[in-house]
Amino acid sequence: MTTARAHIIDDDEAIRDALEWQFRTRGIACTLWPGAEEFLAAWQPDWRGCIVLDIRMKGMSGLECFDTLLARDCQLPVVFITGHGDVPMAVGALKKGAFDFLEKPFGDNELITVVEKALATDAERHRAAAGRETVEARLVTLTAREREVMTLILEGKFNKVIADQLGISMRTVEAHRAKIFDKMGVRSAVELAQMLTGTRA
Protein backbone atom coordinates (compact mmCIF):
# COMPACT_ATOMS: atom_id res chain seq x y z
CA MET A 1 0.00 0.00 0.00
CA THR A 2 2.62 2.53 -1.10
CA THR A 3 0.07 4.79 -2.83
CA ALA A 4 -0.47 7.89 -0.69
CA ARG A 5 -3.83 7.73 1.05
CA ALA A 6 -5.65 8.97 4.13
CA HIS A 7 -6.22 6.29 6.75
CA ILE A 8 -9.44 7.07 8.61
CA ILE A 9 -9.56 5.43 12.05
CA ASP A 10 -12.91 5.89 13.81
CA ASP A 11 -15.20 3.46 15.63
CA ASP A 12 -18.31 5.27 14.36
CA GLU A 13 -19.28 3.71 11.02
CA ALA A 14 -21.45 6.68 10.02
CA ILE A 15 -18.51 9.08 10.49
CA ARG A 16 -16.17 6.77 8.56
CA ASP A 17 -18.59 6.58 5.65
CA ALA A 18 -19.18 10.34 5.64
CA LEU A 19 -15.45 11.07 5.64
CA GLU A 20 -14.82 8.51 2.92
CA TRP A 21 -17.42 10.18 0.70
CA GLN A 22 -15.90 13.64 1.34
CA PHE A 23 -12.39 12.45 0.56
CA ARG A 24 -13.27 10.50 -2.56
CA THR A 25 -15.23 13.44 -4.04
CA ARG A 26 -12.03 15.50 -3.66
CA GLY A 27 -9.87 12.80 -5.24
CA ILE A 28 -8.19 11.69 -2.00
CA ALA A 29 -7.68 7.93 -1.76
CA CYS A 30 -8.61 6.58 1.66
CA THR A 31 -8.85 3.39 3.69
CA LEU A 32 -11.30 2.95 6.57
CA TRP A 33 -10.44 1.32 9.89
CA PRO A 34 -13.02 0.56 12.61
CA GLY A 35 -10.45 0.79 15.39
CA ALA A 36 -6.85 1.41 16.33
CA GLU A 37 -6.16 -2.28 16.87
CA GLU A 38 -7.07 -3.18 13.29
CA PHE A 39 -4.96 -0.38 11.88
CA LEU A 40 -1.91 -1.21 14.00
CA ALA A 41 -2.16 -4.90 13.09
CA ALA A 42 -2.00 -4.02 9.38
CA TRP A 43 0.35 -1.02 9.45
CA GLN A 44 3.52 -1.21 7.36
CA PRO A 45 6.52 1.17 7.59
CA ASP A 46 6.44 1.92 3.86
CA TRP A 47 2.86 3.27 3.88
CA ARG A 48 2.49 6.80 2.56
CA GLY A 49 -0.15 9.45 3.19
CA CYS A 50 -1.61 10.48 6.54
CA ILE A 51 -3.80 9.28 9.40
CA VAL A 52 -7.11 10.80 10.49
CA LEU A 53 -7.56 9.52 14.03
CA ASP A 54 -10.50 9.87 16.41
CA ILE A 55 -9.18 10.63 19.88
CA ARG A 56 -11.91 8.70 21.76
CA MET A 57 -12.80 5.17 20.64
CA LYS A 58 -13.92 1.93 22.19
CA GLY A 59 -10.95 -0.26 22.96
CA MET A 60 -7.64 1.44 22.27
CA SER A 61 -7.95 5.23 22.26
CA GLY A 62 -6.55 7.49 19.58
CA LEU A 63 -3.88 8.72 21.97
CA GLU A 64 -2.79 5.17 22.79
CA CYS A 65 -2.68 4.41 19.08
CA PHE A 66 -0.58 7.53 18.49
CA ASP A 67 1.87 6.56 21.24
CA THR A 68 2.22 3.10 19.68
CA LEU A 69 2.87 4.63 16.26
CA LEU A 70 5.54 6.92 17.75
CA ALA A 71 7.19 3.89 19.36
CA ARG A 72 7.23 2.23 15.93
CA ASP A 73 8.78 5.36 14.41
CA CYS A 74 5.78 5.86 12.13
CA GLN A 75 6.38 8.97 10.01
CA LEU A 76 2.83 9.45 8.71
CA PRO A 77 1.31 12.82 9.72
CA VAL A 78 -1.52 12.29 12.23
CA VAL A 79 -4.63 14.53 12.27
CA PHE A 80 -6.76 14.07 15.39
CA ILE A 81 -10.53 14.45 15.41
CA THR A 82 -11.62 15.64 18.85
CA GLY A 83 -14.68 16.46 20.87
CA HIS A 84 -14.75 19.69 22.89
CA GLY A 85 -13.53 18.03 26.07
CA ASP A 86 -10.62 16.40 24.26
CA VAL A 87 -8.90 19.60 23.13
CA PRO A 88 -6.30 19.62 25.98
CA MET A 89 -5.38 16.03 25.08
CA ALA A 90 -5.11 16.96 21.42
CA VAL A 91 -2.83 19.87 22.27
CA GLY A 92 -0.67 17.44 24.23
CA ALA A 93 -0.53 15.19 21.17
CA LEU A 94 0.62 18.14 19.05
CA LYS A 95 3.54 18.62 21.42
CA LYS A 96 4.46 14.97 20.80
CA GLY A 97 4.46 15.51 17.05
CA ALA A 98 0.86 15.17 15.83
CA PHE A 99 0.25 17.14 12.63
CA ASP A 100 -2.98 18.91 13.67
CA PHE A 101 -6.36 18.43 15.33
CA LEU A 102 -9.90 19.44 14.46
CA GLU A 103 -12.66 19.93 16.98
CA LYS A 104 -16.10 18.50 16.17
CA PRO A 105 -18.20 19.65 14.48
CA PHE A 106 -15.90 20.82 11.71
CA GLY A 107 -16.65 21.91 8.17
CA ASP A 108 -16.02 19.60 5.24
CA ASN A 109 -13.50 21.94 3.65
CA GLU A 110 -11.69 22.45 6.95
CA LEU A 111 -10.80 18.77 7.24
CA ILE A 112 -9.99 18.42 3.54
CA THR A 113 -7.61 21.39 3.74
CA VAL A 114 -5.75 19.93 6.72
CA VAL A 115 -5.57 16.46 5.15
CA GLU A 116 -4.24 17.88 1.87
CA LYS A 117 -1.52 19.70 3.83
CA ALA A 118 -0.69 16.49 5.69
CA LEU A 119 -0.44 14.56 2.41
CA ALA A 120 1.81 17.27 0.95
CA THR A 121 4.03 17.13 4.05
CA ASP A 122 4.39 13.36 3.72
CA ALA A 123 5.17 13.66 0.00
CA GLU A 124 7.90 16.22 0.72
CA ARG A 125 9.39 13.94 3.39
CA HIS A 126 9.61 11.12 0.85
CA ARG A 127 11.24 13.40 -1.73
CA ALA A 128 13.82 14.50 0.86
CA ALA A 129 14.47 10.88 1.88
CA ALA A 130 14.96 9.87 -1.75
CA GLY A 131 17.42 12.72 -2.17
CA ARG A 132 19.40 11.59 0.89
CA GLU A 133 19.53 8.04 -0.46
CA THR A 134 20.90 9.33 -3.76
CA VAL A 135 23.62 11.30 -1.97
CA GLU A 136 24.51 8.32 0.22
CA ALA A 137 24.79 6.12 -2.87
CA ARG A 138 27.16 8.61 -4.48
CA LEU A 139 29.27 8.95 -1.34
CA VAL A 140 29.84 5.19 -1.31
CA THR A 141 31.60 5.45 -4.69
CA LEU A 142 34.34 7.72 -3.28
CA THR A 143 37.70 6.24 -2.39
CA ALA A 144 39.21 6.84 1.04
CA ARG A 145 41.60 9.43 -0.43
CA GLU A 146 38.76 11.18 -2.28
CA ARG A 147 36.86 11.42 1.00
CA GLU A 148 39.92 13.00 2.62
CA VAL A 149 40.21 15.53 -0.18
CA MET A 150 36.47 16.21 -0.11
CA THR A 151 36.57 16.95 3.61
CA LEU A 152 39.32 19.51 3.07
CA ILE A 153 37.49 21.03 0.08
CA LEU A 154 34.42 21.46 2.30
CA GLU A 155 36.60 23.21 4.86
CA GLY A 156 37.34 25.78 2.14
CA LYS A 157 41.00 24.92 1.74
CA PHE A 158 42.83 25.68 -1.52
CA ASN A 159 44.37 22.95 -3.64
CA LYS A 160 47.91 23.91 -2.58
CA VAL A 161 47.01 23.68 1.12
CA ILE A 162 45.32 20.31 0.55
CA ALA A 163 48.37 19.05 -1.36
CA ASP A 164 50.74 20.13 1.44
CA GLN A 165 48.49 18.68 4.15
CA LEU A 166 48.14 15.28 2.44
CA GLY A 167 51.67 15.15 1.04
CA ILE A 168 50.56 14.87 -2.57
CA SER A 169 51.02 17.01 -5.67
CA MET A 170 48.74 19.85 -6.74
CA ARG A 171 47.98 17.93 -9.95
CA THR A 172 46.85 14.93 -7.90
CA VAL A 173 44.59 17.14 -5.80
CA GLU A 174 43.10 18.60 -8.97
CA ALA A 175 42.50 15.10 -10.33
CA HIS A 176 40.82 14.03 -7.07
CA ARG A 177 38.68 17.19 -7.06
CA ALA A 178 37.51 16.50 -10.61
CA LYS A 179 36.64 12.89 -9.77
CA ILE A 180 34.79 13.93 -6.61
CA PHE A 181 32.70 16.49 -8.47
CA ASP A 182 31.99 13.97 -11.23
CA LYS A 183 30.96 11.18 -8.84
CA MET A 184 28.82 13.51 -6.72
CA GLY A 185 27.24 15.12 -9.79
CA VAL A 186 28.19 18.69 -8.87
CA ARG A 187 30.10 21.48 -10.60
CA SER A 188 31.52 23.39 -7.64
CA ALA A 189 32.46 23.18 -3.98
CA VAL A 190 29.41 25.31 -3.19
CA GLU A 191 27.07 22.80 -4.87
CA LEU A 192 28.85 19.98 -3.04
CA ALA A 193 28.37 21.70 0.32
CA GLN A 194 24.69 22.34 -0.41
CA MET A 195 24.18 18.70 -1.38
CA LEU A 196 25.78 17.43 1.81
CA THR A 197 23.91 19.77 4.16
CA GLY A 198 22.20 17.52 6.66
CA THR A 199 23.74 14.42 5.09
CA ARG A 200 26.44 12.26 6.61
CA ALA A 201 29.65 13.02 4.77
Automatic annotation (TrEMBL):
Signal peptide: none annotated. SMART domains: HTH_LUXR, REC. SUPFAM superfamilies: C-terminal effector domain of the bipartite response regulators, CheY-like. Keywords: DNA-binding, Phosphoprotein, Transcription, Transcription regulation, Two-component regulatory system. One of its GO terms (molecular function) is DNA binding. Residues 135-200 form the HTH luxR-type domain. It holds the Pfam family Response_reg. InterPro entries: CheY-like_superfamily (IPR011006), Sig_transdc_resp-reg_C-effctor (IPR016032), Sig_transdc_resp-reg_receiver (IPR001789), Tscrpt_reg_LuxR_C (IPR000792), WH-like_DNA-bd_sf (IPR036388). The keyword Transcription applies. This is Response regulator transcription factor. It comes from Pseudothauera nasutitermitis.
